């Protein structure tokens, strides 16, 4: 890793109090020169700076989305 790049890690906790499963769409900025190193669910790239995850949260339950990125600047 050079001094012109940095790594970050994220954890997003999703809770659902409903009696049925709930679909959740998450949009996160990644940066034009960034990439995802690892993730707990597969993302799609909306554009060069935005990642999207579609997560189904179980009824009366919770789930987590975790991902790590590297960004050059």
Description:
With 73 residues, the protein is mostly beta strands. The chain has one domain (5-72). It is 0% helix and 66% strand. The protein has strands at residues 5-15, 22-29, 34-39, 44-47, 50-57, 62-72. The strands form two sheets. A three-stranded antiparallel beta sheet has the order 1-6-3, with no helix packed on it. A hairpin with a 2-residue loop joins β4 and β5. The radius of gyration is 14 Å and the shape is elongated. The two termini are 12 Å apart.
Task: Label this structure with key terms.
73 residues, mainly beta, 3-stranded antiparallel β-sheet, 6 strands, elongated
Uncertain residue ranges: none
Mean pLDDT: 94
Task: Tell me the helix content.
Answer: under 10%
Oligomer: single chain
How many DSSP-defined strands? 6
How much is the radius of gyration in Å? 14 Å
What would you say about this model in short?
With 73 residues, the protein is mainly β.
Topology:
Blueprint (H helix, E strand, L loop, with lengths): L4 E11 L6 E8 L4 E6 L4 E4 L2 E8 L4 E11 L1
Antiparallel strand pairs: 1-6, 2-5, 3-6, 4-5
């Amino acid at each position: 890793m050079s001094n012109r790049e940095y790594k970050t890690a994220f954890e997003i906790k999703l809770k659902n109090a409903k009696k049925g499963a709930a679909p959740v769409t998450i949009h996160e900025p990644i940066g034009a020169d960034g990439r995802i190193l690892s993730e707990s669910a597969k993302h799609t790239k909306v554009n060069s700076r935005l990642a999207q995850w579609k997560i189904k949260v179980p009824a009366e339950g919770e789930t987590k989305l975790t991902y790590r990125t590297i960004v050059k600047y």
